[in-house]
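Journal club prep — side note

Before the paper discussion, L.F. wants everyone to see what a predicted structure for a comparable chain looks like in token form. Sequence:
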Amino acid sequence: MRRAGLGEGHSGNYVASGYSVHEEENEHLQEGLRAKVSALKSLTIDIGTEVKYQNKMLDDMDSDFDSTGGLLGATIGRVKQLSRGSQTKLLCYMLLFCFFVFFILYWFIKLR
């Protein structure tokens, strides 16, 4: 028995049309894959740009913290030098002034 359309003369056309259907499907899938790859490429470029920006920001913060650490170290050294000397009266005044400033700040924040 022969099926309709699968005669001896039509078998080459059937194979060729099946091949073109698969070829079109492959091209369609290839275009979809190409679009996804380009989206991933742009995303990775954006991530790289953001990472460079964040690294620059971290480097700036590191240098700021280093300079602040040096400033605080020098200040602590001066306070230690004051406490070793005979200027304890000056140190007491300085501590009282600090407590006064903190009290005023606390009172101001509490009223807000």
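L.F.'s comment for the group: Residues 1-12 have pLDDT under 50 and may be disordered. Keep this in mind when we get to the figures.
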